[in-house]
């Protein structure tokens, strides 16, 4: 039934986004991760990598078991309740509308000529220093965030939701949350966060590459540059420090005819990042708009293709059973 539930969840997200008044379940995963980190760090006899690996195992297991228990209980109460709860669980696992709204806030500030506001808005999307970015730098940072999160925030949870239902979507969300909290190469997390980073890399491997296909297809529909998306991925995706993020970022860069990456600053320290994309087009508020449309189109195509294939699989499976 996932091929029916996920489109409903996607539609619900388009209509409601991420209500600020409602505590998002991912915050509960974050609190669990923080508590588990404290627990295993307190066991000083454990090597940090082992403590980090145990944290990953406990958080992932607890999240999946909780989601399954909630879903089963809901279906025991009534099938309609079960369907509604499943849709809600899937809805909370994806974030296309939230990504769109954040990017739109930056774009609107740039269109209004308020660069300072645009810098503050983009700081909510990226981890780099934004206080000295010019208009093009703000636009580039926004497009990079939209590109990466098209995979992390939409395609990947859709992929695992299609395969394993709400439990699969939240398996991924827990993995992504752990990486966002612990997957840093600093003194505190270089060892402890190793397992979180590697597990998230594993979870994102297929979705990030399948996202390239969705971006290219969406670029064709939107009359952008689908061939450019493939060329940019071939030329530069593997140069990215992340084994996965370079794929959607390069695809967006190629489709939009811009370059992403280059120098940026973190905590006042300048860092050179490989350039993605083959054409150095100008970047401004309109580029952000095109990236937002590309994100929505790619996400919808990813969902449609995945749901369609799952539907055909079920048809073949049930026809063989009846035969």
Automatic annotation (TrEMBL):
InterPro entries: Cobalamin_biosynth_CobD/CbiB. It is found in: Cell membrane. GO terms for biological process: cobalamin biosynthetic process. GO terms for molecular function: ABC-type vitamin B12 transporter activity; threonine-phosphate decarboxylase activity. It is a multi-pass membrane protein. The chain crosses the membrane at residues 50-70, 75-94, 294-317. The keyword Transmembrane helix applies. Its main location: membrane. GO terms for cellular component: plasma membrane. Belongs to the CobD/CbiB family. This is Cobalamin biosynthesis protein CobD. It comes from Chlorobaculum parvum (strain DSM 263 / NCIMB 8327) (Chlorobium vibrioforme subsp. thiosulfatophilum). The gene is cobD.
């Amino acid at each position: 039934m996932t091929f029916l539930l996920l489109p409903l969840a996607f539609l619900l997200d388009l209509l409601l986004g991420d209500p600020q008044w409602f505590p998002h379940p991912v915050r509960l995963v974050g609190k669990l991760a923080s508590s588990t980190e404290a627990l295993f760090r307190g066991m000083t006899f454990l090597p940090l990598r082992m403590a980090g690996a145990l944290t990953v195992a406990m958080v992932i297991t607890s999240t999946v078991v909780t989601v399954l228990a909630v879903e089963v209980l809901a279906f025991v109460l009534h099938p309609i309740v079960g369907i509604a709860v499943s849709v809600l669980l899937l809805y909370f696992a994806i974030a296309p509308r939230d990504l769109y709204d954040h990017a739109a806030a930056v774009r609107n500030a740039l269109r209004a000529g308020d660069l300072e506001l645009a810098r503050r808005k983009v700081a909510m999307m990226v981890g780099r220093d934004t206080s000295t970015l010019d208009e093009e730098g703000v636009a580039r940072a926004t497009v990079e965030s939209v590109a990466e999160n098209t995979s992390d925030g939409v395609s990947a949870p859709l992929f695992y939701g299609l395969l394993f239902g709400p439990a699969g979507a939240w398996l991924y969300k827990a993995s992504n949350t752990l990486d966002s909290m612990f997957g840093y190469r600093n003194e505190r997390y270089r060892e402890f966060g190793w397992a979180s980073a590697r597990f998230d890399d594993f979870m994102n491997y297929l979705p990030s590459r399948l996202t390239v296909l969705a971006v290219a297809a969406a670029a064709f529909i939107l009359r952008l540059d689908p061939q450019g998306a493939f060329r940019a991925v071939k030329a530069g995706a593997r140069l990215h420090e992340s084994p996965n993020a370079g794929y959607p970022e390069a695809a967006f860069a190629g489709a939009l005819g811009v370059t992403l990456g280059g120098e940026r600053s973190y905590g006042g320290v300048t860092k050179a990042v490989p350039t993605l994309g083959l054409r150095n087009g100008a970047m401004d508020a309109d580029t952000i708009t095109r990236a937002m449309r590309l994100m929505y189109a790619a996400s919808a195509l990813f969902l449609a293709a995945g749901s369609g294939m799952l539907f055909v699989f079920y048809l073949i499976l049930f026809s063989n059973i009846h035969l």
